[in-house]
Structures are given as C-alpha cells and as structure tokens.
Design a protein that fits this description.
heterodimer, A: mainly beta, B: 111 residues, mainly beta, six-stranded mixed sheet, five-stranded antiparallel sheet, 0% helix
Chain lengths: 116, 111
C-alpha cells in the first residue's frame, strides 16, 4: 500500500524559532499533498493544498507567511512554521494523493509540535 | 450549521458488541464518502470508501450511505478492544476534490 512518512515525529522548540516538517511519499508519486492541523480531541483542519511545482493554496484564516509550504518534488513536501509561538503547538498531519489514487488520500503519522 | 457533523462521543461498548457510528451532512452535492480510523497520536487510515448511496461491506465493517437523508453510517461487528480509536467520516463532491472531515467519534471497546 501507499506509505507516507513524516519527520520529525515530534519536536519541541522555543518561542520565536522556526520549525520545518517533512512529508514524504515513499512508494508513489504524490501529485498533491495536503497539510492538516489537529488540536486535541478535535478533527482535522485543512491548512493548505500543494501541487508539485506550484504555490500552495491556503485555506481561509491560515497565514501564508507563517506556514510556508514547499512541494518541490513528487515525493517531498515541507511545512515550515516560522516564528513559532505556543499557540502553534498542535499535531500536524500531511496526506498525499497520487495519479493512480486520485480520490484517495494517504496520511502520514503526524508530527507533534510543542512550542515553549 | 457545520457542513459535516458527528457525535464526538466517547462511545463505550463491551467487546463483541455491534457498533454504529454516524455522520450527517448538509451539502446534498457530496457523492464520495469515506471512513477513517485514527489511533491516538497517529495519522488517519482509510477504512471504507463508498460512492453515492448504498451499502459496502469489508470484513467486520459495513458502510451505509443514505443520500436522501444526508446520513452515513459505519457498523462494526464483533467489536474488539483494538477497534478503540477515533473514527472520522469524510466526504467530497467530485472525484479528486478535497475532503471535508467530520469532527470524529471516539470509540472505546472494553474487554
């Protein structure tokens, strides 16, 4: 089956620093990758959608300059949380969609970010 | 009104029980319906995928879609403690379009 990995699985950082999270599709080419945010006991909230080689499309209310998304290849997308603050602490999950599974998203295991 | 609604639970059942999980939605244009299972601190995994109305069965899991009532269900037979997780419904209007997720229902199956 399609496998999506995320790195790191958890990260703790100081307020004001930037954190980069990687999302990789290991055995398929991901034409589209999605970034979600999930607070405890709440559902997934889509932050942005990125197509390989294009600028990401952000959902309403998501700051483009704070959450930088890069989808430079068909197997890698990165989310950089810039100048992180404690309110950015959350569970960040990526998912990927390939050409052969156009209506299915495969999720990564998530990255837990804690900003002190 | 939220676009997709689910009872957040928690829902606790004894091992072996039949579990019924449900979602209601407001957008009658939804045609593709998915159920995901998410264990604590893990990413969601796809359980069932259905198109339009009808039933679909896969092992102990059965998904039902009633578009006239804008209501979908996931049934789990012979529930096991390993089924304890949060179950998320998701749906989309067109093939390949972004999903809209429900808030999820937390299920605990007690041994």
């Amino acid at each position: 089956g399609a496998v999506v990995s995320q790195h790191p699985s958890w990260v703790i950082c100081k307020s004001g620093t930037s954190v980069k999270i990687e999302c990789r599709s290991l055995d398929f080419q991901a034409t589209t990758m999605f970034w979600y945010r999930q607070f405890p006991k709440q559902s997934l909230m889509l932050m942005a959608t990125s197509n390989e080689g294009s600028k990401a499309t952000y959902e309403q209310g998501v700051e483009k300059d704070k959450f930088l998304i890069n989808h430079a290849s068909l197997t890698l997308s990165t989310l950089t949380v810039t100048s992180a603050h404690p309110e950015d602490s959350s569970f960040y999950i990526c998912s990927a969609r390939g050409l052969s599974s156009y209506n299915e998203q495969f999720f990564g295991p998530g990255t837990r970010l804690t900003v002190l | 009104q939220k676009e997709v609604e689910q009872d957040p639970g928690p829902l606790s059942v004894p091992e072996g029980a039949i579990v019924s999980l449900n979602c209601t939605y407001s957008n009658s244009a939804f045609q593709y319906f998915m159920w995901y299972r998410q264990y604590s601190r893990k990413g969601p995994e796809l359980l069932m995928y259905t198109y339009s109305s009808g039933n679909k069965e896969d092992g102990r899991f059965t998904a039902q879609v009633d578009k006239s009532s804008k209501y979908i269900s996931l049934f789990i037979r012979d529930s096991q403690p390993s089924d304890s997780a949060t179950y998320l419904c998701a749906m989309s209007v067109r093939y390949g379009q972004n999903f809209v997720f429900g808030p999820g229902t937390r299920l605990s199956v007690l041994p």
